[in-house]
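Notes to self after the call with IL:
- keep both proteins in one doc
- input above output, always
- annotate only the second one for now

Protein 1:
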Amino acid sequence: MLIAQISDLHFLPKGTLAFGRIDVAGCLERAIDHLNALEPAADAVLITGDLTNDGDAAVWAELMGALGRLEAPIYPLPGNHDDRELMRAAFAALELFPAAGPLCFAVDLGPVRLIGLDSLIPGDPAGRLGPEQLAWLDARLCEAPQVPTLVALHHPPFRTGIDHMDAMMLEDGEALAAVIGRHRQVERVLCGHVHRSVQCRFAGTLAQIAPGTAHAVQLTLAGAPPRWVMEPPGLLLHEWRGGRGLLSHLDFIGNFEVGEFSDQHTQAPGYLEASR
């Protein structure tokens, strides 16, 4: 079982540049090409929020056209830039979300279970799950205590050290930790929002943030102003390996030079002799 996780697409119509510089639509095209070319192919693609950059119905329609090229089934979640009802309507054909309320779901993906949560607070960049959704999560985890489970949401429940992002993290992260800590089958808590690959021990398991498909948030651990940076975009690949657990890779998106390893020309002449 191979689950690919992408996040923070911040989709804008073709020809519209984020911050006047970043072709987010082109970045998504390259991410989809990359996903479709994976060997082995992904069994599912999890999208952990901010699919659009405050898009209206027309933007959502264009985004759905782009995502239609994905060959694997998709499991999307809302982020703080998304509109809950526009997203519900856009993905109605998936029959994934309830007819009203949070855009949450629980699905069985062969040997693992995937539970998606809705941390969107309309009009607020921070996130919150709330008591009702946390109770729903607890009930879903109680249903299958022996099945390895991934819990996904947009906002991370832990501090990253990037001050301006930590100011808009999940507000009820401790309440989420209390639920997760009661269920040993949770293999990962998967997030987005920060546009960087970050990992942290959380509630007896591992919480992991996926990078964005376009721009990154600059790594500033000394309280510097918020900035974006065009580091290589990426995604996470989560492989379930049975009794050996879940293995996660950070996979960069882009055209990078590839070469064959060989015994010839690996070192300058005389290197091995000189090092003895």
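Protein 2 (the one to annotate):
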Amino acid sequence: MELRQLTYFKAIAEHGSINGAARALHMSQPPLSYAISQLEDELGVTLFARSSKGIELTDAGRVFYQRTVDILGRSASAAREVSMIINKKTFRLGVTPTVVPVISPYLCQLEKENGNLMLELHGGDTYHLKEQLDDGSLDGAVIRTPVNLQGCRYHKIKEEPMAAVFGHRRKNNSVTLEELSKEPLIIYRRYEALIHDTFEKRHLEINMILECDDARTALQFVEDGLGTAIVPMTIAQKHAGLSIATIDAEELTTSILLAYHNTNAVLSSLLELLKK
């Protein structure tokens, strides 16, 4: 398996056709088709299925696409790191989209104090970033609980409450679980178990009408009038125009952590900034 084949595969998957990929890669179609055929033979699976819409990834193809993006990303990162090794230090940090407002000021200060620093940020969900941290692709990862941190060291950056976000104006800035049990709720999947457990401890039913994989998606549906979302407070505060209320339940909290395995000079500097 060669990086060239992975580049071809990624281009076809993203353009949805061999012709489109060939144009983007500035090459003819036959060698591209042949390279993919060789790749499928080597893997022993079919990566693409042809349909009336063109070609689509198979189940195996979708899994392989995710790995391909990671491999090509690491390859490019390694090339950049080697090319800049004389003048710059590369710091590879994973961040989930929802923690960017919290970690951004610290990273700006880190860059100011380390003029020869190249910050390389990798986005993804907490579980994907934890996987990359474990396999050595990242120097550190800023993630949210709940998460299994077995084998990791970590520093707690911030603990914050969950908030209820309404699409309509409210007089009160707080809300009880009893009141929320009467609302049509939009739940960010990562916190489903925590939210359900909290309601069950109070012997309350939960009226969940939508579950999704991104807090920003949940807030979009709130804006569209579907229901009320429960998300971390810092995420809620980034959406002007929505009514935000603290929830009268101490259990509904989440922590933002900097997780890592080994320290280096840059990571040590970041930890010092976080501890101030």
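Annotation: Residues 3-73 form a domain with the Arc Repressor Mutant, subunit A fold (CATH 1.10.10.10). The chain has eleven helices and twelve strands.
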